[in-house]
Amino acid sequence: MENTSSSSFRLLAFLLISFHIIATCLAMNISTDQSSLLALKAHVTPDPYHILSKNWSSSTSVCNWIGITCGSRHQRVTVLNISGMGFTGTIPPQLGNLSFLISLDLSYNNFHGELPLELSRLRKLIAIDISSNGLNGSNVLSVFNISSLDYLGLMDASLTGDLPSDLCRRLPRLQKLFLSSNMLSGEIPRSISECSELQVLALMENNFLGTIPGELGNLQLLKVLDIGFNNFEGTIPYEIGHLYNLELLAMDYNKLTGSVPYVIGRLYKLEYLSMERNKLTGSIPLSIFNISSLEYLSIGDNKLEGPLPREVGNLSMLQVLDFSMNNLTGVIPHGIGNLQELEDLSLSYNNFKGSIPIGIFNISSLIYLQLAGNHISANLPSTIGHGLPNVEGIHLSGNNINGVLPSSISNMSKLMYLELYRNELTGSIPESLGNLRLLEVLGLSSNSFNSELSFITPLANCKYLRKLILSSNPLNAMLPKSIGNLSSLEMFLATGCNLKGHIPNEVGNLRNLSSLELEDNDFNGIVPMTISSLKNLQRLSLGANRISGPFPIALCELSNLALLNLSQNQMWGSLPSCLGDMTSLREVSLDSNNFIAIIPSNLWTLKDILKLNLSSNFFNGSLPLEVGNLKAAILLDLSWNQILGNIPSTLGSLQKLTHLFLAHNRIEGSIPEAFGGLKSLEVLDLSYNNLSGVIPKSLEALKYLHYFNVSFNRLHGEITNEGPFVHLPYQSFMSNEGLCGNSQNHVPTCPSNSKDRSKSKKERLMRVVVASSVFSVIGLASAIVFLLMRRRGKTTNTEDEWLPEVAPQRISYYELQRATQGFDGNNLLGSGSFGSVYKGTLADGIIVAVKVFNVQMESTFQTFDRECDILRNLRHKNLTKIITSCCNLDFKALIFEYMPNESLDKLLYSRDYCLNIMQRLNIMVDVASALEYLHHGYSVPVIHCDMKPSNVLLDNDMVGHLTDFGIAKLLTMEESIAHTTTFATIGYIAPEYGMEGLVYKRSDVYSYGIMLLETFTKKKPNDEMFVGDMNLRSCVHNLLPDELDQIIDADLLTVDEENLSRKMQCVASIMELAMNCTANIPVERIT
């Protein structure tokens, strides 16, 4: 009995001791977990939300701490999740003591330094996420040694280098791998197929390259494959079609080529498919539209061709459909209207035509409708606003949509973006747009709206309106004062709208405005002083108006202004010195005004300015050395002023300068040798000055220089034939009597001995004598022409006559067809035997004249080629500017700058407009200037052969431009006469032209004389009043000098009777000139 009691006692004692030992061990292990976590707390500084300081305390159980989960069996820490708590600090090695830890999530904090190697001791760990911290990338790779992991999150972890080739052997249980947003490179190892349990592979936003391995097709459990934003090349492997469990496939933003594999259509569980921004070609495989589970489909920005299949309407779950920026053709399928879950439809920048299916406007779930940059036509439905209650953005720019803007659009109460640029919308802009209370962007530019701007007043209800873009519409209205009520406006663009009157003072209320662009309108008056309130203004463009007054001092208060454009106005006075205090300025255009005096000295302190254009004013004085402070400048234009003195050598230090214009001034001295330091220079124009000395050899080093002009100076010495001078035309050097060199520059050969020098000296003396007499005549004529030019409304632009060649714009037949609305008769400007001329509006809003040749005529090809050969090299302010050509076997056209005032012929005989005497004289001076250039200013003489009023076109400023070179003749340097079988217009042709088929330069002079007679008599040379031997010339000759009132245009005699006598004297002089031009014998005509 005693033995039994003794045994029981010993057993009880053993159990008590064992329990005590176990309890001690448990207490010690939970204490280990606590101390490990407190070590982490100690390494966190700061704790912005006081999570650790207030909650992680030794007075409470670890298992109750925020972010901690304990196991129910052992009460040990199994989960540590402090993701996104804003912690900053380092990770202590003690975390390696959390031996029961299953999941560790430290993501989206600011931990930095090393990832402790002790974490590799956590053998029970199956999930770790340390994404988006600042840890040392190379040390982070140690987690690949934790073989128990099935979840590994290392996004934005600064990882570099290649993926380990033995990744799957190290992590055999891996199911989810997130490595996005790192700097990993190399190829995806083909051994990735060994990760047989892998369900998620996210490698987006790295630098992976090479091809996509076909071995990925072995990952049968894969649900997510995201390899977007890398540098993968080659084709999409066929094996991708084996991933039958795939729900997300993203390959966007790579360099993949080839077609979209048909086998993609076998992925019946796919919900998300993105392949945008690659180089995929071919057509869209029909199989894709069998994936009924698709919610997101984006293959935009590729090179896909063909139609969008109508089967797209089968994707009833689709929320996003994006095929934008491809080459898709045909019509938009009506089946899209069946996609009642659709939120984002983006088919922009393709070649779709036809109308927008009406069903699209009834998709009530639609948020974004993006169809810009296609060839969509027809009207917007009048009910557009009734079926899209959730739409936030409508982007239909760059199409052919016509008709009116329906007022029902105001029912789209959630609309924030309405962009309808570059369409053919007409009528008024609905006032009901003011009901769109959430509207942020209203873009209506480049249409044909003719609204009275009454819609602006209700726009004050749009409290979030940031951008109002109305440019290139014929609004023909005054800007209302209510514009000042759009207080949230940041950008207001209304260029080329024919806006009139004053700029209202209320514009100063737009305190949030950063861009105000109102150029190319008809504003007058002064710039309102209230503009000084626009402290956020960065861009102010008021050029090409009729704004007058001195430079507005108020502009100097705009401390953020970067672009200032007041060019082509009527402003006067001197520039204020405060302009030099506007250090934010980057581009300044004050050209073509009437500013005077010396340029303020502190303007040269604007060291960050990029473009400075002060041309075509009356600035005087000399350029200071401080001009060399403009170190950032790429363009400096001071031409057409009255600047004196020498060129500062400091200009040569502007190494970023690409364009320098100093032409038409009174600059003296030599060209600085320092100009050889202008390493970026492309264009240098120093013509029409008094420069002397030689052309510096240092300019040979300017390898980017492609336009150089020093004509009409007093330079001497040899023209180098090195560097950029090899290909320069002779016009670059003309009228410098002392220059010599290669004969192709039309200068004498440089003397090589004393005999040559003596002969050269005699030749120069002869030239001086001849030049003296010639220039005395030219000087008188120039003075007259100068006075005439100063009477015009706007100053001639610096680059009109000597414009550097640029690469011609490429315009396709299809673009011309769109521009002219299918060569519609309403756009016909004129026609003749050669073909027809149409008015057209290009996609960028530029209005052009399209001369379409009649390819059925036998001579068309010769005429077209001749006109191309001549016009491609001619550049003069009074010749029509050719933009480009369009040519194929069945179509030939030339595209010219559009002349809004049509021809001299039409205005001369118009019932609605009367040209006054000065206008007629100015136009004929313009024609004479063009003719002088053709005969004497081009490399070989050009005979126009068809001078008549209908071939003189007038621009917006009534400047004459000679056109139509279809039958023109080029003379070689040895020729002074040519033979032609092509006859010009009867009545204007010279006698020798009609009788013998011979043309001289004097033949054009004869035609010019007939034009002079017609312009001031308003009688055509083939008028019925001229019978027998009587013609226009003989009639005027018989009435000179005292009876001209019998034939002169009566409109010229009734305008101002007070000056009738002076007018008649002026007209008589002009008629005498016409007589000298139209002598029957060519040698008796003036040239």
From TrEMBL:
<keyword id="KW-0812">Transmembrane</keyword>
<dbReference type="InterPro" id="IPR001611">
    <property type="entry name" value="Leu-rich_rpt"/>
</dbReference>
<keyword id="KW-0472">Membrane</keyword>
<keyword id="KW-0067">ATP-binding</keyword>
<dbReference type="GO" id="GO:0006952">
    <property type="term" value="P:defense response"/>
</dbReference>
<keyword id="KW-0325">Glycoprotein</keyword>
<dbReference type="InterPro" id="IPR055414">
    <property type="entry name" value="LRR_R13L4/SHOC2-like"/>
</dbReference>
<dbReference type="Pfam" id="PF13855">
    <property type="entry name" value="LRR_8"/>
</dbReference>
<feature type="signal peptide">
    <location>
        <begin position="1"/>
        <end position="27"/>
    </location>
</feature>
<dbReference type="GO" id="GO:0051707">
    <property type="term" value="P:response to other organism"/>
</dbReference>
<keyword id="KW-0808">Transferase</keyword>
<protein>
    <recommendedName>
        <fullName>non-specific serine/threonine protein kinase</fullName>
        <ecNumber>2.7.11.1</ecNumber>
    </recommendedName>
</protein>
<dbReference type="InterPro" id="IPR051809">
    <property type="entry name" value="Plant_receptor-like_S/T_kinase"/>
</dbReference>
<dbReference type="InterPro" id="IPR003591">
    <property type="entry name" value="Leu-rich_rpt_typical-subtyp"/>
</dbReference>
<dbReference type="Pfam" id="PF08263">
    <property type="entry name" value="LRRNT_2"/>
</dbReference>
<dbReference type="InterPro" id="IPR013210">
    <property type="entry name" value="LRR_N_plant-typ"/>
</dbReference>
<comment type="similarity">
    <text>Belongs to the protein kinase superfamily. Ser/Thr protein kinase family.</text>
</comment>
<keyword id="KW-0597">Phosphoprotein</keyword>
<keyword id="KW-0547">Nucleotide-binding</keyword>
<dbReference type="InterPro" id="IPR032675">
    <property type="entry name" value="LRR_dom_sf"/>
</dbReference>
<keyword id="KW-0675">Receptor</keyword>
<keyword id="KW-0732">Signal</keyword>
<dbReference type="GO" id="GO:0005886">
    <property type="term" value="C:plasma membrane"/>
</dbReference>
<dbReference type="GO" id="GO:0004674">
    <property type="term" value="F:protein serine/threonine kinase activity"/>
</dbReference>
<dbReference type="GO" id="GO:0009653">
    <property type="term" value="P:anatomical structure morphogenesis"/>
</dbReference>
<dbReference type="InterPro" id="IPR008271">
    <property type="entry name" value="Ser/Thr_kinase_AS"/>
</dbReference>
<keyword id="KW-0677">Repeat</keyword>
<dbReference type="Pfam" id="PF23598">
    <property type="entry name" value="LRR_14"/>
</dbReference>
<dbReference type="Pfam" id="PF00560">
    <property type="entry name" value="LRR_1"/>
</dbReference>
<keyword id="KW-0433">Leucine-rich repeat</keyword>
<feature type="binding site">
    <location>
        <position position="851"/>
    </location>
    <ligand>
        <name>ATP</name>
    </ligand>
</feature>
<dbReference type="Pfam" id="PF00069">
    <property type="entry name" value="Pkinase"/>
</dbReference>
<dbReference type="InterPro" id="IPR011009">
    <property type="entry name" value="Kinase-like_dom_sf"/>
</dbReference>
<dbReference type="GO" id="GO:0005524">
    <property type="term" value="F:ATP binding"/>
</dbReference>
<feature type="domain" description="Protein kinase">
    <location>
        <begin position="823"/>
        <end position="1087"/>
    </location>
</feature>
<keyword id="KW-0723">Serine/threonine-protein kinase</keyword>
<dbReference type="InterPro" id="IPR000719">
    <property type="entry name" value="Prot_kinase_dom"/>
</dbReference>
<keyword id="KW-1133">Transmembrane helix</keyword>
<dbReference type="InterPro" id="IPR017441">
    <property type="entry name" value="Protein_kinase_ATP_BS"/>
</dbReference>
<keyword id="KW-0418">Kinase</keyword>
<dbReference type="GO" id="GO:0099402">
    <property type="term" value="P:plant organ development"/>
</dbReference>
<keyword id="KW-1003">Cell membrane</keyword>
